[in-house]
Amino acid sequence: MKANYLFPNRFKQIGWFMLIPSAIIGLVTLIYEYEPNFLDYDVPAIFIDELLGNKQLFGMVSNNILNEIFGVLIIISSLLVAFSKEKLEDEYISKIRLESLVWAVYVNYGILLFSFLFIFDFSFLWVMIFNMYTVLLFFIVRFNWQISKLKKSASYEE
């Protein structure tokens, strides 16, 4: 069966090249709350709820776009890494890919259920922010771990 939904293999390297630095730098900027002034822009917003109770459906808001830049880079690079073909893509690799995706969704939503029950207030917002990325990251970790196990067992048999 041919997997038409996968990117060509060369996109995996591009994805890793973007993912590692953007995830590290993005995490550091979140932890230290770094927002350089030169990235403050007026950007379009779909729903605006200002502190004084002024609500608008469309409009412009002043925002530092650093978080958006790293968020977009992490999502795009994670998609490239997760959904690029392996050099030798066969049915067994497709099976590992599907099992890893299902496992990642189960683990992700297990963590989310736990968070709904035991984490509250602003801490829950942080959980939700990280939850946007964890399905792809859990999938990438599990899929690559399973592929490395497969390669080790294949080299052991030779």
Please outline what is shown here.
The chain is mostly helical and 158 residues long. Helix content is 66%, strand content 10%.
What series of H and E elements makes up the topology? HEEEEHHH
> What's the domain count?
2
Sum up the overall morphology in one term: elongated
Helix-strand makeup class: mainly alpha
Main pleated sheet: 2 strands, antiparallel
User: Total strand count, please?
Assistant: 4
Assembly type of the shown chains?
Answer: single chain
Radius of gyration: 20 Å
The total count of helices amounts to 4
Summed over residues and divided by their number, the pLDDT gives a mean of: 91
Proportion of beta-strand residues:
5-15%
- The poorly predicted ranges are none
- How far from one another are the termini? 27 Å
Could you estimate the helical fraction of the residues in percent? Answer: 55-70%
Q: How would you write the strand order of the largest sheet?
A: 1-4
Annotate the secondary structure layout:
Layout: H1 10-31, E1 40-45, E2 48-49, E3 55-56, E4 59-64, H2 66-82, H3 91-118, H4 121-157
Characterise the protein shown here.
- The protein is 66% helix and 10% strand.
- With 158 residues, it is mainly alpha-helical.
- It has two domains: 7-85, no CATH class; 88-158, no CATH class.
- A two-stranded antiparallel ribbon has the order 1-4.
- It starts with 9 loop residues before the first helix and ends with a helix.
Features:
158 residues; mainly alpha; 2 domains; two-stranded antiparallel sheet; two-stranded antiparallel ribbon; 4 helices; 4 strands; 66% helix
